Amino acid sequence: MGEQLTIDDVRVTYNVAGRAALNAVDGVSFTLTPGAVLGLVGESGCGKSTLARAICGLVPLSGGSVTFGDVPVGSMGLSGRDPRLLRIQMVFQNPYASLNPRRRIGKQIEDARRIHPTTAPTVGELLDQVELPRSAAAGYPFQFSGGQRQRIAIARAMATGPDVLIGDEPIASLDASLQSRVAQLMRRVALESGASLLFISHDLAIVRTIADRVLVMNRGKVVEEGETDAIWGAPQHPYTKRLLGAIPAVDGLGRIPLVAQP
Question: In this protein, which residues make up the domain named ABC transporter (predicted)?
Answer without folding.
Answer: 5-244
